[in-house]
């Protein structure tokens, strides 16, 4: 329990700040198509600046420790002044540290479905909980991570996952598939009060390393996602934003996924003094798969240390 509290204190952003928190106008989006070419002062003057993690001879932004603390998730074992460009995971704000490793999934086994948190496995293995609005692509992402078809049941009908499902990975840690929130098309008898069901899991699960909160990047920010993120923050639950469907092309009257991500971060930053870790993914193209597993490995290995 002491290790969990230590991990939460390092990963959890300070919540509900009373003053503006970022030194830039808009959250940072990585495109990997441009080099660092502006100083922090120039970034502040240009709110549409797109930051890249590609190698460059002008790492002016990363030379500013204050900027690093405000823009990136710096993991245990790394000091802000030690951060280099090649330590940042592509498509994310996550810095890779010394605890990263053993990221590949060799085997996965379904263990059980539980109707209550007290019925979940009690073997003290660390676990990552997958949470998101219905049809956010949660089951598809789980299948993409383990590279096995139908490990998690996918469906076009919201509300298919209605229990807490534990999958044992490499016989050492769990991926937990939680019921989606906000669904309206499930049978009345199958609808559940997310407040009393899933929230009970978060508040009472000592082996929870982090919540992976999935956000659909193909649509504008949704109030229900913001409410969920705010609830997790208020209750000191560590989380990582996993933006899904980042392969989707811009609709005729809509915005690109990276633009929707920027809008979401703009709303979230109003309540967080420091940004939670976030990463862009696509279960179709495999974007972000290896990077997400590396991020999970460094949190998990620190937990086990």
Feature tags:
305 residues; alpha/beta; Rossmann fold; seven-stranded mixed sheet; 8 helices; 7 strands; 27% helix; globular; disordered N terminus
Can you tell me about this structure?
Residues 124-302 form the EngB-type G domain. Belongs to the TRAFAC class TrmE-Era-EngA-EngB-Septin-like GTPase superfamily. EngB GTPase family. This is GTP-binding protein At2g22870 isoform X1. GO terms for molecular function: GTP binding; metal ion binding. The structure is a single chain. The protein is built from 8 helices and 7 strands. Strand 3 (164-169) and strand 4 (173-177) form a beta hairpin. It has a domain at 2-8 and 105-304: Rossmann fold, CATH 3.40.50.300. A 7-stranded mixed β-sheet has the order 1-3-4-2-5-6-7, sandwiched between helices. With 305 residues, the protein is an alpha/beta fold. The model is unreliable at 1-59, 153-160 and 188-192 (pLDDT under 50). It is 27% helix and 14% strand. The two termini are 13 Å apart.
């Amino acid at each position: 329990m002491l290790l969990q509290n230590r991990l939460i204190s390092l990963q959890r952003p300070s919540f509900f700040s009373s003053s503006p928190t970022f030194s830039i106008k808009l959250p940072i989006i990585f495109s990997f198509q441009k080099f660092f070419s502006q100083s922090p002062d120039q970034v502040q003057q240009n709110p549409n600046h797109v930051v890249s993690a590609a190698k460059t001879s002008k790492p002016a932004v990363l030379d500013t420790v204050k900027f690093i603390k405000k823009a990136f998730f710096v993991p245990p074992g790394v000091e802000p002044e030690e951060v280099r460009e090649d330590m940042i995971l592509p498509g994310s704000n996550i810095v890779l540290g010394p605890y990263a490793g053993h990221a590949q999934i060799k085997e996965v086994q379904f263990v059980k479905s539980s109707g209550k948190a007290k019925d979940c496995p009690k073997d003290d293995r660390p676990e990552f909980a997958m949470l998101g609005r219905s049809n956010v692509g949660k089951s598809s992402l789980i299948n993409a991570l383990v590279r096995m078809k139908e490990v998690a049941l996918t469906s076009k009908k919201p509300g298919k996952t209605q229990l807490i499902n534990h999958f044992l990975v490499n016989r050492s840690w769990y991926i937990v598939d939680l019921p989606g929130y906000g669904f309206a098309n499930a049978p009345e008898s199958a609808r559940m009060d997310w407040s009393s069901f899933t929230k009970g899991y978060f508040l009472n699960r000592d082996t929870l390393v982090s919540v992976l909160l999935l956000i659909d990047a193909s649509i504008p920010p949704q109030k229900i996602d913001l409410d969920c993120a705010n609830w997790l923050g208020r209750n000191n639950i560590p989380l990582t934003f996993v933006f899904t469907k980042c392969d989707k092309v811009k609709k005729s009257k809509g915005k690109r996924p990276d633009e929707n991500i920027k809008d979401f971060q703009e709303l979230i930053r109003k309540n967080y003094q420091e940004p939670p870790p976030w990463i862009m993914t696509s279960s179709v193209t495999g974007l972000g798969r290896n990077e997400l597993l590396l991020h999970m490995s460094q949190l998990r290995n620190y937990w086990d240390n």
